[in-house]
Amino acid sequence: MFEQTFKNIDDLLYKDSGADSELDYIGQTSWVMFLRYLDELEQDKADQAELKGEEYTFILEEEYRWPNWAMPKDAEGKLDHHSAMTGPDLVQFVDGKLFPYLAKFKQEADSANTIEYKIGEIFSELKNKIQSGYNLREILEYADSLPFRASTDKHELSHLYETKIKNMGNAGRNGGQYYTPRPLIRAMINVVDPQIGEKIYDGAAGSCGFLVEAYDYLYQRMEKTTDNLKTLQEETLYGKEKKNLAYVIGIMNMILHGIEAPNIIHTNTLGENIRDIQEKNRYHVILANPPFGGKERPEVQQNFDIKTGETAFLFMQHFIKSLKTGGRAAIVIKNTVLSNTDNASVALRKLLLEGSNLHTILDLPGGTFTGAGVKTVVLFFQKGEPTKNIWYYQLNPGRNMGKTNPLNDKDMEAFVSQQKTKPETEQSWNLKVADIDESTFDLSVKNPNTPEEAALRSPEEILDEMVYLDKETKSILNSIKELI
Known about the structure:
α2 (22-51) packs across α12 (244-256) and α9 crosses α10 (209-221). It is globular, with a radius of gyration of 28 Å. It is built from 17 helices and nine strands. The chain has 484 residues and is of the alpha/beta class. The chain has a nine-stranded mixed sheet.
């Protein structure tokens, strides 16, 4: 049922002249769903207050609440066509009054961790792109039919929303940066094994895939006490995201997973000087897939000790600096970080090996990321002790990866289980840091355990065999003829 509703909304957006791609569809669906969710949240809180004999103060003024502008209903609970805005008046209200009213919350909120601030942030970042008031009216009706109250509903909605994010990743046009395959994320979390009470951070949060998977991982394993649930909701998951659309999608994704006021800050993570990061800003666990290939401006590079234009290498420095001593990280990064010979790459490897235990490198096959033409690796490290030994694992799912054949959880099982004991196999090996070249700190993936390929035969041998097989075929055919 939900799936059909999502599809119907997409069809209307497709018909509308304002939204013109998968990226627009999800942005527009997101703001409508967010206001629908907010109304349910407010209704729940008002009901709870009433049970206690208390008065609930609504966040939104009367005129801007969902039942008043989006879905005024008559006595029978049907849309009241007399008072509902439907055409140009609806779009004028949304663009001229609703969005500016909601955007103002950002200035008025007590702190960035409140739902009020999130409302202000979202509506000062997004624009309504739905140009037809008639299309918008239908979209609001569909959104009104989505139930947000039961956790099973939320679970199904979050699942559908994830599928939309995935499709957006496949839609190209930098959609790929929004989507890290979930089986890979789950394997990374399994290895890092976060515990309740630890602070988890993603400084390039995108659609918040790492944070929602970490939430599920902790939720399933922890004791469900009031304290633990409060800790998980409010003091566990932290993220930063620079892009407007990704920020809104990430917030919505976390809300659908049951996190009421996500600690996601809308900022350029690399704009922060790493020398200003203090103990109170540090985390126990960092999980991330930072964007690579971007070129950061010289003034941003000034925030880092190792100057480079490569975004991913700046993120690596930010992550190392943002980890508490003893903190654990798993970072997806392009494989050239292991082998590039420029000064910045060498300095980064030296920094990582000397200050952290880079205990595991997972080498991913090409095609793991839809649309990204680069080979990637995952670096697993713990801050505080130098690296003595690195265990490499070469992931080989035994098929070509791609849009129709994506990574699945089964592909990751052997890696996750073997990572505990770090054996030598045809796909995995150990490297002693004492044996590497100290002038380059080269950590390239070179599998010493690959089975020997059969040597190629000479053309003469091949021709001889063909003649021999030909004779054999003739004699078999002759015997068959005799039988007949």
